[in-house]
Design a protein that fits this description.
The chain is α+β, with helices and mostly antiparallel strands and 185 residues long. The chain contains five helices and eight strands, in the order E-H-E-E-H-E-H-E-E-E-H-E-H. The protein has helices at 27-36, 60-74, 86-95, 154-165, 174-184; strands spanning 10-15, 40-44, 50-54, 81-85, 107-114, 133-138, 142-148, 169-173. The strands form two sheets. A four-stranded antiparallel sheet has the order 2-3-1-4, with helices on both faces. A four-stranded antiparallel sheet has the order 6-7-5-8.
């Protein structure tokens, strides 16, 4: 008899504003929080609010709302939660938005994830006047940027993006996106 295994969808919750110095924001607390919500195979990737989990539920906006509602009640802080599926991250990586750019000590490659479809429309690639970063393009509610660290810092880009798009966003390095995808496999 052939036995078919059901595979639960794999997701990552990207939490905004996680500071590992806050005891309630540490990975062990975040994993316990997600397990208490009924998620399985909960893992964290680095200490910046990347929580991997499995669930049979597929309504990502409902999952985001559930997590956001429970965070202040259970851990005492609020955080924008942006969920992406393994498939969405793979599609982003497959597009190779950075082509031959290299993430190193002088150049950061970043991905800013949007909770909702952004309203501001830019023509890509876009370099804000007088800034040392370039937005390469928008890919499925995520903008990919190259930051020249000889002229600015990543928080400058994040502040600019927040002024353009609001606070329902969160930024990760391209390396972190790769680590998350590898762990989701």
């Amino acid at each position: 008899m052939l036995r078919i295994m059901s595979v639960m969808p794999n997701y990552v919750a990207l939490l905004r504003g996680i500071a590992p110095s806050n005891p309630n924001m540490r990975n062990d607390k975040l994993r316990g929080f997600f397990e208490n919500l009924g998620f399985t195979n909960v893992q964290t990737v680095i200490s910046s609010g990347n929580v991997l989990f499995e669930t049979p539920r597929t309504d990502m906006p409902a999952l985001e709302a559930m997590i956001e509602k429970a965070l202040p009640l259970q851990l005492g802080f609020a955080s924008t939660t942006i969920i992406r599926s393994r498939e969405q991250l793979q599609q982003l990586v497959d597009r190779d938005p950075f082509k031959h750019a290299e993430h190193n000590r002088l150049t950061y490659l970043t991905v800013t994830f949007f909770k909702d479809k952004p309203h501001a429309r830019l023509k890509f690639p876009y370099r804000p006047q007088g800034k040392s970063y370039e937005l390469l393009g928008m890919y499925d509610q995520a903008v990919c940027s190259v930051v020249d660290l000889t002229g600015t810092k990543t928080p400058d880009l994040m502040s600019w993006l927040e002024r353009q798009y609001g606070k329902q966003i969160t930024t990760r390095t391209w390396q972190t996106v790769g680590r998350i995808l590898k762990r989701l496999d």
